[in-house]
Write a structure and sequence with these properties.
Number of helices: 17
Distance between the termini: 30 Å
Largest sheet: 4 strands, mixed
Oligomer: single chain
Order of helices and strands: HHEHEHEHEHHHHHHHHHHHH
Number of domains: 2
Helix content: 55-70%
Shape: elongated
Strand order of the largest sheet: 2-1-3-4
Length: 398
């Protein structure tokens, strides 16, 4: 054990001297969340404010119908009304960006309304994230105009306006705010944590095996009194520590970004701080520990097989896709943690993290996730140890 610790200490010091490893393991995880939170919040708030305050250019063709609608639109200070365009011109100008929206009233509109039927209105727009907000402003005016027509219709028939409403729906959402938050952001966080876990372990794994081969120092280490198992365990512990260390630092970055956020409303900020409590963080970390063991063993095995640093990078880079895909599947609506998904590596971490943040994790499923992850970690570690004993692997291409 003492020899393993000496090798671990030596490899750790070498790793901490590598600038690339420090950037991937510490700098990026620590700065990413504050930067992401600050930039995304400011952009979203700015876009929303601009969309709400933007003066909209709206073309209107009434075809001699819908009396009062043009007055309703003109009274709105945030709308510039154009009534001299053809329907074809409206479409052209919306496509080019010269016009925001267009309303074309059907020639049969007044007759249909008079016959107590529905009058047709064509709403031209070019869909985008911005028009989801600005378009709603136009729709609100149309809703207001429709309400006035419906009120007039019921008044003419001497009927109560509510006679057409047979049901009063009292919607009672029993999902807690924490559960909604877990559903909204719970899938994104494991996506980032798993990537950091993999990336944090990748560079040390490449440098401690393929890098030493390239530098010609691995032969010196193999001639030392240390046994193969002691050498591989010392290297493995450094790679594992780098992977799990990246996750811990990313948690710190997330906490600091939430703690000192200025754009987030106080009620949401307080909830986020409650969700990011010590127990939640510790539980999520406990899921990532066996996953980090698996990542470290796989990455170190590939790096030992590679002859040069560049070859190791070429072999490991495609694995990013294999890591990203299961986490990405966990973002799909309707993908839940169950007896089957709890056995799928990486996906189970994503889904379990979402449930932990929402506070709805079931003990039985959590234990199943732990069991599958520790089994996977043990298999990876055993393979790495056996792989390192093969002379034709270590000295491949020598």
């Amino acid at each position: 054990m003492k020899t393993t610790f000496i090798i671990f200490k030596k490899e750790l010091m070498d790793t901490l001297r590598d600038r690339r490893t420090l950037i991937v393991m510490i700098v990026i995880p620590l700065l990413l969340f504050p930067m992401f939170m600050t930039i995304s919040t400011k952009i979203m708030m700015k876009q929303k404010k601009e969309a709400q305050e933007k003066t909209l250019s709206l073309a209107l063709i009434t075809n001699g119908n819908a009396a009062g609608l043009d007055d309703l639109l003109k009274k709105n200070e945030g709308i510039t009304l154009k009534e001299d365009l053809t329907e074809e011109k409206i479409q052209e100008q919306i496509k080019s960006g010269a016009l925001d929206f267009g309303l074309v009233i059907s020639p049969e509109f007044d007759r249909m309304v008079a016959e107590k039927k529905q009058g047709a209105v064509t709403f031209y727009l070019k869909s985008s994230e911005e028009t989801k907000i600005t378009g709603r402003r136009v729709e609100n005016i149309l809703d207001q105009y429709e309400s006035s027509l419906v009120d007039a219709r019921f008044k003419e028939l001497e009927l109560d306006v509510n006679i057409g409403k047979a049901i009063t729906l009292n919607k009672n959402d029993i999902a807690t705010v924490q559960e909604k938050l877990g559903e909204a952001v719970g899938g994104l966080l494991p996506y980032i944590f798993v990537i950091f876990c993999f990336m944090g372990a990748m560079y040390p794994a490449i440098d401690l095996a393929a890098g030493e081969k390239e530098r010609g120092t691995i032969e010196t280490l193999l001639t030392s009194p240390a046994k193969r198992m002691q050498i591989v365990m010392g290297k493995f512990l450094v790679v594992f520590l780098a992977g799990i260390g990246s996750v811990v630092i990313s948690f710190l970055g997330l906490y600091l970004s939430v703690k000192f956020a200025t754009e987030i409303p106080d009620e949401i900020l307080n909830l986020l701080l409650q969700v990011l409590n010590f127990q939640t963080i510790l539980t999520v970390l406990s899921l990532l520990i066996p996953l980090s063991v698996f990542f470290a063993s796989v990455l170190l095995s590939i790096s030992i097989f590679a002859h040069t640093f560049k070859e190791a990078q070429s072999l490991i880079t495609p694995l990013n896709i294999l890591v990203i895909v299961p986490v990405f599947i966990g973002l799909f609506p309707g993908t839940k943690l169950n007896a089957v998904t709890a056995l799928v590596p990486i996906l189970n971490v994503s889904l379990a993290t979402k449930e932990i943040i929402a506070g709805t994790i079931k003990t039985g499923l959590l234990l199943e996730v732990y069991l599958s992850l520790f089994l996977l970690a043990a298999m990876g570690l055993i393979f790495c140890a056996q792989w390192f004993k093969k002379e034709d692997v270590i000295f491949r291409g020598a």
